[in-house]
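Regression report. Comparing outputs from two consecutive submissions.

Submission 1:
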Amino acid sequence: MKLNRLLSGLLLSCIAALTLQARADQLQEVNARKELICGVYADVVPFSYPDQKTRALVGMDVDLCNALAKEMGLKPTLKPLSVEARISEVKMGRVDLVIANLAYTKTRGEQIEFSNAYYITKEVLLVKKADAAKTLTDFEGKRISATKGSTSEQSIHLAVKNGVPVTFQDTGSAYLALQQNKVSGFVTNMMTAIQFVQQTKGSPDELAILREPMVLEPIGAGMRKGEPAFAAAVNKALMGLEASGEFKKIWDKWLGPDTKYGITRTEKIAPLSELKFQPLQ
């Protein structure tokens, strides 16, 4: 009886080992099915959102996924995700990678693998136009608004000495607090800040973006941990898009100088290890 139990245990161990081995190489897996499954936003402009006429997903992240798949010799398949599902879906293996404006943080880095950063976004301080020439040191000990639980809130603690976060459930309320002079500044991402500046331009409540950023946030594709061959292939493809100029075309189409965001690209795709930044939690 003991021998039978021992043999049964060994058999189960062998089956488990073979199963793990069969799933060990994600690159072989995606090459075998000739398909790259990308998790993208379901509806976040300008990254991935339904076209009003065709209802097909369009956006910067959609174009990047398509270009990445082509560079890897694969067919792209898009899977719409909520903001909250980005990490869990890639950890569970339901998507091969997530391309959804995913910023690197310490917590996320412990859960999933990040590709090379394909761009760097900034958390910035939005202020009244009269305060535009000030520096972050001028806001020491000041009340600053942000959305609750966001990286914007974290950045106040990192970038402003004795800064007092005043948090709200939504961006609109945090913005309104600045307009009503309840806070000295409002922290948000660069693209949102640009839109608020454009909305208030020429009005008595005109806003400006402080030149000095709060924090830098590298954006990369999220992948399962423990898949070095797949991660290397994704990074090689990203660098190929950089070298060919294809990523610049995608950037200029959605975020560049001729768009409403008007952002000039200054950084190139690079490994996280080469970037100088203080990661958020």
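Submission 2:
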Amino acid sequence: MERAALFDVDGTLADTNHLHVVTWWEAFRQAGHRVPTHAIHRAVGLGSEDLVARLLGEGEDSALAPGEAEDLSTAHKTLYAQYFERLTALPDAGRLLRRLADDAWTVVLATSASDDELSALRRAIDADDAIKATASADDVSEGKPAPEPVERALELAGVPAQRAVFVGDTVWDMRAGTRAGVRCVGLLCGGIPRADLEEAGADAVFADPAHLLAELARSPFA
């Protein structure tokens, strides 16, 4: 019976969340906006447009000039790209993907990263032999917490929601997975508290990929 293991990437398989915080903070600072890092951290995992809107408002409450959201996104991408060759995988991320693939799970990545960012992340994880497909921000019209990224990953896997598990590290991941009808596993390595992940829909929570790998027999992957 076909089954799918769907994974977020930033903060779930790669140790990148705080790099995103720093580079978004610098992009905001260069544009004259003072945004606290703790607020940015809570927004990481959203697509760029939604992240900017959450932190600087939208509509009549927006602190943005026309076209500034796109400029901020471009600045963040440029700053973050400086780290591409130094990105690191979280402990046992590659081993976890390979173990699931060996156990006949179809592994698909569902990420808010753009295609060029995803290429750098995949090099860091170094487990392409275990990954069947990817759904990036360039493949969907609406990012997490909308279900579309997870639904697209399910399409690529060719598996219905009831035979899939989605692993992520943010509340946006858990909400997207829940809305798509899949079981959700939360990881604490992205820096979001256990209670927040559980409230957003996590069926189980583990410390990081290494912890999940060690506890697979007692996880939704069992």
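Expected: both submissions complete independently.
Actual: both completed, but the second showed a warning that disappeared on reload.
Relevant detail on submission 2: Strands lie at 3-7, 105-110, 131-135, 164-168, 183-187, 204-206.
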